[in-house]
Amino acid sequence: MSRAEEAARRVELAALKDQAESREAQQLLDTFVVEARSRGIEPEPLRATLMDGHGVKTDKLGWYLRKNKSVAVGDDGAYYVLTVPGGLRERLRGVRLTPSPPPLEVGRGGRDGETGDLAEFLRKRLEAG
């Protein structure tokens, strides 16, 4: 096997691992949504932050998972990263959120110190009510 083929195989294996992780994380999110609703924890309108720091409205309802409100679970069970690109138009009209593949570790590679297991973030959110 050539070096190029080995590299392509490593990329393929990493993608398969990421997909498996996202499927497992999605199960946690789906369970969270059911549990939040059964406890009467209502979703709230989600807001996003533009790269320039301005807050904007979004088209989704959900539950924030991080204190800085940069990550949320939508009422549809999707995982949303709430730091988005945009400018004046988005400040005036708001943004449409696109779901991201959910990770099992929230904030992986981030520098703000609020990282950890997705299951733990979900548990804390349920406990907070």
From TrEMBL:
Region (Disordered): 94-116
Protein name: Bacteriophage HK97-gp10, tail-component
Species the sequence originates in: Microlunatus spumicola
